[in-house]
Amino acid sequence: MKKQRKHCLYCGEITIKKYEDGVQRDFCSSCQCFFYENPLPVVSSILESSRRILLVKRDRPPSKGLWCLPTGFAEAGESIEDAALRELEEETGIKGRIVKLLDVDSYKSRFYGDLLFLTFVVEQVSGKLAAGADSAQAKFWPVNRIPPLAFRPNRNALDTYIKGKRDYWAIFDSIEHADKKTLQPEASKNFLTRRLVNVIIKNKEKIIEQWLEDIAVNPSTSEYNSFAQKTLHNICDKILSQIILWLGGLHDVKRVKSFYTKLGRERKKAGFKISEALSALSLIRKHIWTFALAQDALQKNLELYMTFELQRRMTIFFDLATFYLTRGYEEK
Q1: CB-CB neighbours of 296 under 10 Å
Q2: Phi, psi at residue 44, to the nearest 5°?
Q3: How far is residue 49 from each of residues 123, 143, 146, 308, measured CA to CA in Å?
Q4: What is the CATH number of domain 1-37?
């Protein structure tokens, strides 16, 4: 149980309870000051390798003997990102790099009081897996065999991560399955598709960023300057997700039709020219290809005709998108 304050930190006098702004706080009558109880920041890391999640088995209270993500308190003088990477290395021996902040969650602990969990997605840079001083064991667990976790925010964050990855994993499974049932040219084609899908997944935020920068200065999309950046980001993110699903064979024409017909109606209602909407769409394709080719993701050790075939599949997607976007725009 968390210990309660009884004395003033400054003069040593016994504190009393007094209301401030409708909240009961510790108060020192001698110093005439309130003491504030703020949530303590806790950092956790999700490190995945081949659909396995790195967990540590706790070697001390609270929840001794239970598994959790690499987790610990942030310390004064360090950034929250540095705290997450420090805890990861201390508990598992692995040095990592922050990919993104995934989840923020409140939690009440009987040991520490109110806590604020910040969970980051990280990737391994170096180091060797080994349990630290606070951990009885460090181990990668398959995502379908995760044991009961010590902290609810860990479970919530991990559920969010797995949910976000489920479609992508399904794509790779479908492509792998196709590889095993086709002749060599088709298998090579699927290998190429897998590489492009992987490039888009890993670099989605960078592609969106480049697209946002382009439409902000491109004369053919001048009307988009007045559009909220967050809204544009979400639209581009959805389109990239659809392309990934399309290439993986998990997105059909019906879904493409539904989305782009609706998008066309929305752009018309917002007063956009159809030419601007189509230009913004074509710029997404431009940045996918530009980024993929810059990463040497398509042509290295592959026959040129395979690249053409993949481009044909991309063209079909964007032709459908263009057609139904226009159809939605033309609807009365």
Answers
A1: 11
A2: -135, 155
A3: 9, 10, 14, 32
A4: 2.20.70
Asked if 152 and 60 count as a contact pair (C-beta separation under 8 A), the reply is no
Burial class of 230 by CB neighbour count within 10 A (0 to 12, 13 to 18, 19+): exposed
Angle, helices 184-202/204-217, rounded to nearest 10 degrees: 70
pLDDT digits (tens, 9 = 90+) for 68-95: 999 999 999 999 999 999 999 999 999 9
Residue in the structure block whose two tokens are 């998108």: 321
Q: Which residues pair with residue 119 across a beta bridge?
A: 44, 103
Cα gap 75→42, rounded to integer Å: 9
What is the rounded distance in angstroms from the CA atom of residue 120 to the CA atom of residue 81?
8
What residue type is 251 in one-letter code?
H
- Residue 106 one-letter amino acid: S
- The set of residues, in sequence order, having a beta carbon less than 8 Å from that of 77 and lying 6+ positions away, is none
**DSSP 3-state of 256:** helix
If DSSP codes are grouped into helix, strand and coil, which group holds residue 279?
Answer: helix
* CATH (residue range 40-163): 3.90.79.10
Report the SS3 class of residue 287: helix
Torsion of CA 209, 44, 128, 67, to 10 degrees: -140
Residue 58 corresponds to which tokens in the numbers above?
Answer: 């706790």
- The predicted-structure confidence for 317-328, as pLDDT tens digits, reads as follows 777 778 778 877
Q: Where in the chain is the domain with CATH 3.90.79.10?
A: 40-163
- C-alpha 86/C-alpha 43 separation (Å) is 10
Q: Are 264 and 328 in contact (CB under 8 A)?
A: yes
